[in-house]
Design brief:
This protein is an alpha+beta fold. It has one domain (2-85). The protein has 3 helices and 5 strands, in the order E-E-E-E-H-H-H-E. A hairpin with a 2-residue loop joins strand 2 and strand 3 (15-20).
């Protein structure tokens, strides 16, 4: 899966914003916390959910189950706005 090219990111004052720039169903801006921004950055290349979980486990000190749930939640939200190519 990968972030659709119709969505770009911009970081302002250490906060990442996800912005749709193409003609799609979503018209808004998504402000990401650090966890969501990390996941969105991973999606700038073709990855699986397991790849993202592994990368997060290497970076953050949290139980794998907690990280996996966070990844699922964020991916579900990104799917809901049509931001992911699968």
């Amino acid at each position: 899966m990968k972030l659709k090219p119709e969505f770009i990111t911009q970081t302002i004052d250490e906060t990442q914003f996800l912005v749709p720039v193409g003609a799609g169903n979503f018209s808004g801006v998504v402000r990401s916390n650090a966890t969501a921004a990390f996941i969105v950055d991973c999606l700038k290349e073709d990855v699986t959910a397991d790849d993202i979980v592994g990368r997060m486990c290497a970076k953050y000190d949290a139980p794998r189950e907690v990280i996996a749930q966070d990844v699922r939640d964020i991916l579900d939200k990104l799917r809901a706005i049509g931001a992911i190519d699968e």
